[in-house]
Amino acid sequence: MQPGQSSIGPPAWFEHTPVELRFGTSGLRGLVRDMTDLEICVATSGFLAYLKSRAELDPGEALAIAEDLRLTDPTTGLESSPRIARAVARAARDAGLRPVHCGRIPTPALAHWAMRRDPGAGKEPMACVMVTGSHIPADRNGVKFYRKSGEILKADEAGIIAAVGAARTAAYAQGEQESPFDARGMLKRRFEPEPAHPGAERAYVARYAGAFGDARPLAGRRIVVYQHGAVGRDLLVQIFAALGADVVAVGRSEEFVPVDTEDISPAQEARYAALVAEHRADALVSTDGDGDRPLVVDETGRFRRGDVLGTVAAGPSWFFSSRTAPG
Prior knowledge:
Shape: globular
Order of helices and strands: EEHEHEHEEEHHEHEHEEEHH
Structural class: alpha/beta
CATH superfamily of the largest domain: Alpha-D-Glucose-1,6-Bisphosphate, subunit A, domain 3
Number of strands: 12
């Protein structure tokens, strides 16, 4: 038996062959068609059981949940992030927890709000789960697990995988009538969480908009926000406007667009440079799908890769230099 597998096989009444999710660079990922409610529930149950085994989670605690803008799998028509988030919430409730849905917000917004709550004000830190495939194509998706102290590490994966195997065995042991899943691995009854809690979104905007007090450090600057299908696209507009920038929003898409901020093609780079020139902007900014990696093009139209962006950000007067400044 491989790590994470059930000690018994799928029940005979299943009409599908379960495909177990695997850990990638960040979280569990897979094809949406393979990410059945059963797979999401056993994965989430394993994660929560792992936290409980480490005395990091008690019954009745809250689990914060958010999702990106992957609404539908374009190849199958199957509902994507909203359905997966509901399955996460169902698993949380079945584990004796209180799911708190934070809406469609960036991964850093969810993690920041869940981790940095104030126990002195009766707001204990929470574990959280982000439903996102980040920058991968729309026929795929994923889930990212966060402990109260931050995203899980590679050292956590073995313990989580073992707990997932136990959760899968329990799910497979149920008969067709008692199982909450149908023969396709989908929940028989749709689970509807409470309305989205606005706290994480508000805290994310305030974190940046309030960092300079009453000052407006970007006053007189024009920023192009390339929105595509990034979950934080409207929040970026709010933040830059609050900092005094003249914001131009472009490229909004109602279909999910996979943008890898570390792998920009020459055609993409030329398009971004053209947008900067067209709007006579001081910068073009965007993020990947879940908002945890930035995309920045400077006033000359040059793409600034993420691994050097920290250096650029450390010298804002150089970043917003004249158009004739050396690259």
